[in-house]
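Kindly review this record before class:
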Amino acid sequence: MTTFEDRISVLQQLGVREEFLPRLKKYVHFLWESNEDLNLISRQMSFQDLLDNHVIDCLLPLSAFPKSIKNVADFGSGGGLPAVIYAILFPEVQFHLYEKSAKKQQFLQQCQAFASNMHIHAEIPKELPAIDLVMARGFKPIDVILDMSRAYVQKSGRYFLLKARREKIQEELDLAGKKFKSLKVQILPLKSPVLEVERHLVLIGF
C-alpha cells in the first residue's frame, strides 16, 4: 500500500516545506480514519486515492496561492480539502471554513488541533467584510459561488477555485458572465505528478 512517506518527495516538489509535513501527515491519517464513519469523501477510496486524488490534487495550485493575505473563506469545506491543508501550510493566515453539515463541522473542529488558525462556521454570510480571498474545491458551479457571495464580487473580491475540466469551466463562466459583467478571469492548467487528470485553477478578480 502507498504510504504518506512514499509521497513526501512529491509533496515537497509541490512546495510543502519539511516543517509542515508532520502536521499534514496527522491530518491525512485523521481524515482517513474518520472517513469510514463520516463518509467525508468516499468510503470506496483507498489510502492512495486519498493521497493522489485529493491531497496532492489540492496542492497543485499551491505556488499560485496569493501572498500577503490575512483572511480566507473556504466554501463547502467538507472534510477540509483544501482548507485544512492550506491552513497548516499558512499558519499566519486566518481561515474561515463554511460547512452546513453538523457532522462535518464537528470533524473540522477536531482538525483545529492541526491548525489553530481555522474558524468553523455553518452558513455562508451575505457579507464577507474582512475576507481577502474565497477558495473552494468540488463545491458548486462558478456562477452559483459568485451569486451566493454577490456583495463580495461587487467589492472586487478575489476567488481561488480548484476545478477540473476546461469545457465545464467555460460553461460555468458563460453563465457567470450573464450575471456579472467585466469579471477578470484567469484559467491556469495544472499538472498532477502522479495522475493523468485534467485540472485547472480558476482565478477571479486578480
About this structure: DSSP finds eight helices and seven strands in the chain. The first helix runs from residue 8 to 13. The longest strand covers residues 185-190. The helical segments are 8-13, 21-38, 47-59, 83-89, 102-111, 142-148, 150-154, 166-179.
